Structure formats: structure tokens, C-alpha cells
Amino acid sequence: MKFIIFGATGMVGQSALRECLLDDKVQEIxxxxxxxxxxxxEKLKSIIIENVADLHSIEQEITGFDACLFCxxxxxxxxKEEEYKRITYGITLSxxxxxxxxxxQITFIYVSGSGTDSTERGRAMWARVKGKTENELLxxxxxxxxxxxxxxxxxxxxxxxxTKLYQFLYNVLKPFYPSLxxxxxxxxxxxxxxxxxxxVSTGYFSPIIESTEIKKxxxxxx
Length: 222
Hints:
By secondary structure, the protein is an alpha/beta fold. It has one domain (2-218): 3-Layer(aba) Sandwich (Rossmann fold). It is 37% helix and 17% strand. It contains seven helices and nine strands. It has a seven-stranded parallel β-sheet with strand order 3-2-1-4-5-6-9, with helices on both faces. Helix 2 (81-102) runs parallel beside helix 3 (125-137). The radius of gyration is 16 Å and the shape is globular. The two termini are 14 Å apart.
């Protein structure tokens, strides 16, 4: 299988990239973003692009792929809804439109988050915007589309958060990982990455995949 990963430098993207690199079923990976993912591997190619919403210049390099793992995201803290929507909704839909045109049989995985509002009418701005993004993606003519909604993610194997405060909190929580990981609603970065590869490979009965399901899928040996 051939994968495209957006946001491979973030914690979710790092999780996806690590498991793709380790899985023999994944033969080729293209990581797209504004920064290099910081890894070298024979099956990994990095494409640096400033405007991720405009993929016109790299269309030949993103044709013939089986899956896209869309792991890009920003915090809504301090952002007005219009700007947050422009990034979260606008960029995602622009990428999806290009990829489905170039790869009609592609599987698209979008990582939103626990609490995403499918009604688009709730009080939480971020949840409404992500809900609208999910709803729109599910209307695209992909081979399949899955909305991953992880809650708390415990980073393992060198995976780190780009947000210093979050990483500090993870460092504080690290001694408690063994007990925290027993919760059905908390997933490890390894389980999240494995679940993405597994769902692309075998499919899943529901397009919306919550933390408890991510944990189960990601615990199945690949």
C-alpha cells in the first residue's frame, strides 16, 4: 500500500508515520507539510510545501496512492471561528478535493477528536467546525472515509507534542502511563497509528471511530 500523510511532524502524525514505517504492508509513504518529519527511511519521501491547501505543483507526486492519513490540526485556543474554520475546514476540504480527483480509489482518514459535534449546532466552536468538516468529507466519493476521534493520547516510542506545555504535562504523567493506559477511552500513540493502518487495510463497519474503538483496533496484531 502507498500512503500520504499530512501533518507528520505533529504528535498524531508522528504516531501514524512510525507505524507505517514499521508495517511491511506499507511500501511507500509521502509526508507532506511545511517541515521535514525529521526521519530518513528508504520508503519515506518528504515534500515541503508552504501552502498545503494548494497542491497543484505536486500533483504528479501524489497520484497513484491507496490512502491519506490527514493528521493536520491547530488548537482553537484564542482563535476566532472564521480563522479556525479557514484552517481546519478549508485546508482539509481543499486537500480532499485534490486527492479524490487524482486517486478515485483512495481511503481518507481524518483525525478530528473526541467530542466532535456532528450536529454542527453545539456550543463548542471547535467541535462544530470539526463536525462540519467530518460531515463534508463523508460526502466525498472516496473508496472509503473514516473519522478518527481520539481523546487523550499517550505518546510512546519518542513521539512528542510540538506544544511545550502539553509535552511538559506528558512528562509529568509518564509515571502514570501504565494505569492510564488501562482506560478504554485513552489510547497510546502506537495504538492510534496501528489502528489507522489496520482500517485502511481491512476497512471498518462505521465511518466514525471513537477512542474505545481505536484502542481495540490498534491492539490487534498487524
